[in-house]
Amino acid sequence: MQNSALPGASAPIDLAALVSDPYGTYARLREAGPVHRFTGPDGRPAWLVTRYEDVRAGLADPRLSLDKAHAARENYSGFSLPAALDSNLLNMDPPDHTRVRRLVVKAFTPGRTEKLREPVRRTAEALLDAVEAGGRADLIADYAGPLPITVICDLLGVAQEDRRDFRAWTDAMIAPDPERTHLMKEAIGELLAFFTGLIASKRAAPADDLLSDLIAVRDGEGDDRLSEDELTSLAFLILFAGYENTVHLIGNTVLALLDRPELMRQLRMNPDGMRAAFDEFTRWDGPAPLAIRRFPVEDVEIGGVTVPAGETVLLSVASANRDPRHFDDPERLDPNRAEKGHLGLGHGIHYCLGAPLARMETEIALAALLERFPGLALDVPREELKWRPSVRARGLISLPVRWK
């Protein structure tokens, strides 16, 4: 549907086009102006920021708050999550954000991430074993989806028999059907019940896993610790962000390689090049087109436009990462790109805490896939592929492939 421009906007914004042709649409918006006021996905007014320098500055600007207490009520609705799922880093400013992130970092150590390397590799190989004989698969349902779920469950310490259909829950929340809102409410209730029960069991029988460490931080002595809601919300955030974003990043990257057989061959021959390629794939077609919404605590000038306090600001990471003002020939996918500083994992104090884990998972998933199936090819016409119907999540619904 065509979204008519509101006062302050320099170009109309077609929300459907942000799903079907996001990069072409963002290119037109960047050239039309740095900031656009429009009707957002929730039907409320919002400001869309499109150019690299403005987006990068906005991600680190303390005047742009993540705390919904600063939102003008008439301009923001958002998710209606219970406090036990909402008291997380995506809704916090300093000093609470500083305190909680510092405590989480103590448990989310590089050593724990590195310990997952071999289990991730084994899981990837097992998933490929399961589909190899058939000669074809849906890489989202059969590979890119199950792999991150297994990794996150291993990280949190979720026993095999307790693993649920997390994808159904996250699907209901990330792209809710307006005619079936009860599914989102049910998903929220089931997620809360799941994590409440999981924390209780870990508290009774701690183990060598991230959730047990977070519970120890929560139950420790002193004032510098987590509240119960913060603990539950962190577990939810680790699952939700760690699963959803990694699924889409793997799927988007595989599609980019299928579109570029020579690049796929080069990476197959040189898997060590996958590390540098990760950053370029994240820049090129990352899973989160928009940073988490922000609310100015005072009137703020962005790109020469004054955004009033309390209004919703959406920083377009996807647009910034294709901005020719920063990246030379940004429409070219180049793993050896000289320009650094993509914003696909954030910037400033809200830089993605799970970035090392996402990098490790994606590198292993791609290397294992390319090594196993040198004849990998799309199993449907390119134009039949469908994307998630969301401007906030960039990911394929399915990715049918075959191999010789």
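(the above was protein one; protein two follows)
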Amino acid sequence: MNSGHGCSSKSSSQAIICRAAVCWGAEELLRMEEIEVEPPRSSEVRVKMLCASICHTDLQRWKGLPRSRALFPIVLGHEGVGIVESMGEGVTKLKEGDLVIPTFIGECQECTNCLSGMTNICENYPVNRNGLMPDQSSRMYVRGQRLYHVFTCSTWSEYTVMNVNYVTKMDPRVPLPHASLISCGFSTGFGATWKEANIEKGSTVAVFGLGGVGLGVIGGARMRGASKIIGVDLAENKEEKGKFFGMTDFIKPGGSRKSISQEIKEMTRGMGVDYSFECTGVEPLINEALQSTVVGRGVTIAFGLGDKGTAPISLIALISGRTLKGSTFGGIKPQTDLPTIIEKCINKELQLDALVSHEVQLEDINQAFELLKQPDSLKVIIQITKSLNY
């Protein structure tokens, strides 16, 4: 058995001792622990993590939400990028040394859903919410105690094991922080503009919440040729970020006695927008997003889960001919669609440096949680390996 952080094993039959940020209970400070990461089993790869980032879903898991799925102790993190250190049996599309990112849904390209062309929710490799690998076991232990995974990832660790069906090969020309960002958040918003909404040139768009997902929507809407892109956020500093990615108008809620949907309608000659995207999960905003769209044909895409996981919906808004559609990963199929986003990063059509507001080392992970509370905070990059020259 190897020991010490930053270690590696050329044999997939050996366990590795490395460092990880472990959450032992809801809203408790994460503790750096030496954990044991088992070798990969069939159809699995063990990955040496290079860097990671924080997504809102990680914060929910840290808070113990949803309550019915609170799992501790757990290694958080599902955005990131790393290199394949070893492989289990049956892995044919990857090799040791490949750069990879995790995806929280898979794509078998064989099931009814994958073949339908109507959804990215794979029947064989769906979102895994029980904190274990597909075979219902863990690959991480601390002092003999089982650790739960986030989805099939757990990227806030120097090493982790992933099922190969939840891994996408990454082109090394993409900067590592950018690779981490497109493994979930930004891609979710960007992809939804063509996979879920199929925004037409000249369309009008409203985006509720200008975090990583919302800015992804703005960037995608701009590339799709939207004529008006209205961003909505409580933080005034998000206006500059939104405009960088292509936003044309900005609303800070509370600035007037009018509702957000009323303000949006005034900006669109009383009609409302063609498409709205709700990226926060804040309960009242679901209906505001729905009511901000044009009667008879407006479409609202909802990503956010919120703390409760439920929200009341205005039936009047729905029966007026509007459509409310939920979305996972922006409708993106990891193997089929992510290469399009990767190529846009390589061609510098997507400039993702503007998404990064802070960087921390893995051992300073708790500082990252504090940074996220700051008004200027957007995406925090976590450097897992001291040297990113892999």
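Reviewer note on protein two: The first helix runs from residue 56 to 62.
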